[in-house]
């Protein structure tokens, strides 16, 4: 079975954009691929998170992904720092990673500009750690967003470089995962422009209670309404309809589209309906988050099983890489 590897950020909460976008794909992928999904806690160290919050953050994200549909019976769900083989491969790949090319990556330049006081070597070599995450399982596919494409290309370069340097075929070149030609779902924010995101401050979280969801939706940016029948929709209104398309029934969408077209739309009514439909969609997930996050025994069983599976897969690749480099047992 072909392998898929994907990292999950280790802080924050899952929002509707993650749920309707990446997570739905993960849930589908785990049916047909050998999937390795990991919580990227080592990556988060670049920003020096407080040790007191570290474990709780991982636990929250783990609970939310489980509640939202990842099935540990079908995929390996693990914590990155539980798999030391990743760090060993990181050391080997660092020897093939050149300073100049790392400095030219868009994410490094962006982060270095935003945090000039903390340009550490871990930040510079972030793409090397990411390449290790992927190559250590010899992944066939990585589901990547636009912002991660450059990192995936770097992983491909290191795979090639390692194989060429040592005259071996240890690493496959991982490819970007796409579901057919379907363009990925993009959930817009409620603030009128751009996509929903944690750092954009415009997100509805799966753990938000229903009063909070209603309040956020009622505050969504709108305009003064259509001035003539069948007029084109401005982006802010299109965004509301895009979310409605993803969470409401086709009848509901048709009803409000007609109201837009004949200029009788009342945004208050539309938002009320949208809020109800978001609450209905997220309610079962919210309930599962509560149940899963308080079940310590279940969480530790999931993490242990994920660790075992991930380490077995990683150890096989690392053994071949160590051989290639020239390490031998005494
Ligand atoms: P992030 O929350 O930025 O760590 O993203 C985790 C995953 O969710 C990535 O695969 C993103 O592409 C995806 N994602 C984040 N925000 C959205 C959004 N608004 N709509 C669709 N997918 C999203």
UniProtKB/TrEMBL annotation:
Its main location: cytoplasm. Belongs to the class-I aminoacyl-tRNA synthetase family. A motif ('HIGH' region) lies at residues 10-18. It comes from Candidatus Merdivivens pullicola. L-tryptophan binds at residue 133. The gene is trpS. CDD domains: TrpRS_core. Homodimer. Gene3D superfamilies: HUPs, Tyrosyl-Transfer RNA Synthetase. ATP binds at residues 9-11, 17-18, 145-147, 187, 195-199. Keywords: Aminoacyl-tRNA synthetase, ATP-binding, Cytoplasm, Ligase, Nucleotide-binding, Protein biosynthesis. A motif ('KMSKS' region) lies at residues 195-199. GO terms for cellular component: cytosol. This is Tryptophan--tRNA ligase. One of its GO terms (biological process) is tryptophanyl-tRNA aminoacylation. It is found in: Cytoplasm.
């Amino acid at each position: 079975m072909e392998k898929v590897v994907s990292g999950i950020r280790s802080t924050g909460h899952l929002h509707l954009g993650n749920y309707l976008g990446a997570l739905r794909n993960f849930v589908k992928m785990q049916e047909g691929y050998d999937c390795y999904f990991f919580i990227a806690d080592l990556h988060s160290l670049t920003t020096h998170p407080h040790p007191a919050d570290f474990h709780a953050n991982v636990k929250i994200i783990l609970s939310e992904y489980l509640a939202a549909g990842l099935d540990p019976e079908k995929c390996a769900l693990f914590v990155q720092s539980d798999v030391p083989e990743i760090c060993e491969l990181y050391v080997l790949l660092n020897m093939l990673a050149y300073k100049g090319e790392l400095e030219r990556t868009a994410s490094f330049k962006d982060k270095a500009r935003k945090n000039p006081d903390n340009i550490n070597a871990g930040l510079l070599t972030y793409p090397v750690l990411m390449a290790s995450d992927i190559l250590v399982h010899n992944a066939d596919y990585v589901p990547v967003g636009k912002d991660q494409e450059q990192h995936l290309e770097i992983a491909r370069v290191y795979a090639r470089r390692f194989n060429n340097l040592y005259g071996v075929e240890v690493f496959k070149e991982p490819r970007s995962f796409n579901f057919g030609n379907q363009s990925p779902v993009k959930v817009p924010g409620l603030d009128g422009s751009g996509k929903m995101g944690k750092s954009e401050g415009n997100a509805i979280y799966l753990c938000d209670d229903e009063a909070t969801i209603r309040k956020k939706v009622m505050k969504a940016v709108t305009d003064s309404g259509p001035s003539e029948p069948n007029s084109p929709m401005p982006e802010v209104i299109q965004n509301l309809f895009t979310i409605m398309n993803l969470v409401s029934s086709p009848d509901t969408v048709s009803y409000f589209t007609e109201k837009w077209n004949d200029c009788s739309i009342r945004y208050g009514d539309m938002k009320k309906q949208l809020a109800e439909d978001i609450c209905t969609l997220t309610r079962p997930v919210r309930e599962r988050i509560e149940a899963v996050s308080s079940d310590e025994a279940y969480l530790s069983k999931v993490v242990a099983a994920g660790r075992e599976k991930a380490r077995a897969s990683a150890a096989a690749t690392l053994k071949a890489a160590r051989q290639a480099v020239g390490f031998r047992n005494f």
